[in-house]
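User: Design a sequence. Structure:
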């Protein structure tokens, strides 16, 4: 058991029979009344974000998690299959645990957070950016370059991304994994 003075971003706690990670927190000491900690918590099981206020010195249960590097292998009827880079052990993960599975390329390395005591996967963290090759894109229309015009392009994983008109088939592009948006042309 710990108290609210130990709350920090990224801390995993048990709250309302679920495991949450602290997204934001703010220690508040008003002029009148007792101090409190205002938090924004994200559930690791269903992804919902809740706001909660803890009174000062409130007891919280910290959950110990371990971050391990895994390599994406393939997708089958059981889900997405990953291999531990150190032990070569394989684990199958359901699609709902991934933020953007359409951007997952075979051989990509991801971080999987495991509950240290129960050895169950909690959440998959993809890299912030991923570089993929454009396999199909319509040619850009000349004269539309004065505006921020975009066109749909299909990348090697099958995902469709809005890209600027100058992107062509065979180009490699950098995509932000959280939003699925085009960032820049990769070198």
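Assistant: Done.
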């Amino acid at each position: 058991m710990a108290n609210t003075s130990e709350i920090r971003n990224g801390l995993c706690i048990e709250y309302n029979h679920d495991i949450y990670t602290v997204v934001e927190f703010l220690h508040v000491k008003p002029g009148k009344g007792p101090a409190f900690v205002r938090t924004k918590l994200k559930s690791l099981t269903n992804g919902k974000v809740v706001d909660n206020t803890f009174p000062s010195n409130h007891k919280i249960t910290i959950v110990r998690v371990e971050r391990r590097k895994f390599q994406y292998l393939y997708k089958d009827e059981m889900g997405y299959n990953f291999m531990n880079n150190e032990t070569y052990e394989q684990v199958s993960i359901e699609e709902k645990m991934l933020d953007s599975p359409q951007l997952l390329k075979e051989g990509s390395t991801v971080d999987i957070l495991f509950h240290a005591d129960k050895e169950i996967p909690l959440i998959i963290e993809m890299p912030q950016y991923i570089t993929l090759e454009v396999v199909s894109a319509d040619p850009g229309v000349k004269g539309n370059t004065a505006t921020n015009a975009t066109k749909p392009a299909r990348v090697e994983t099958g995902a469709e991304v809005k890209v600027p008109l100058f992107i062509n088939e065979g180009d490699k592009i950098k995509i932000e994994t959280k939003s699925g948006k085009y960032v820049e042309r990769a070198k």
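The chain has a mean pLDDT of 86. The radius of gyration is 21 Å.
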